[in-house]
From TrEMBL:
InterPro entries: CheY-like_superfamily, Sig_transdc_resp-reg_receiver
Annotated protein name in UniProt: Response regulator
Top-rank lineage group of the source organism: Bacteria
Modified residues (4-aspartylphosphate): 55
UniProt domain Response regulatory: residue ranges: 6-124
Keywords associated with the record: Phosphoprotein, Two-component regulatory system
SMART domains attached to this UniProt entry: REC (SM00448)
GO biological process terms, semicolon-separated: phosphorelay signal transduction system
Length: 125
């Protein structure tokens, strides 16, 4: 089997994090997590990340700020990591804002786990 792909989950709710992690691990993904925007930016520098599930309401730097910083990264491998926004209040943002920030896809909370797996598979090959 090919190397497992690494998904970074940026989520400050441990309940959501643990559920999401279990679902993705069942799909043979390696999962790393970050509880805030500062951790997200550090982790993408420190290891190869194949996709990010980005909660938009994380502390330190929110998901939109993190996404913009990742997109502006000097390293093209980091700058093009697929980012899937996860949020309970997407109504605060328009699709244009997501696109402008560099978000590839969006999943509403509560998470639909079938949709989650399908979306991750779409971006991580």
């Amino acid at each position: 089997m090919a190397d497992s792909k690494t998904i970074l989950i940026a989520e400050d709710s441990s309940v959501i994090l643990n559920l999401t992690k279990k679902i993705l691990e069942l799909q043979n993904y390696t999962v790393v997590s970050a509880k805030n925007g500062g951790e997200v930016l550090k982790k993408v520098q420190d290891q190869k990340i194949d996709a990010i599930l980005m909660d938009l309401n994380i502390p330190v730097k929110n998901g939109m700020e993190c996404t913009r910083e990742i997109r502006a990264n000097q390293d093209p491998q980091i700058a093009k990591i697929p980012i899937i926004a996860v949020t309970g209040n997407a109504n605060n943002y328009t699709l244009e804002q997501f696109k402008e920030a560099g978000i590839n896809a969006y999943l509403p909370k509560p998470l639909d786990f079938d949709m989650l797996v399908q979306t991750v598979k779409e971006y991580v090959h």
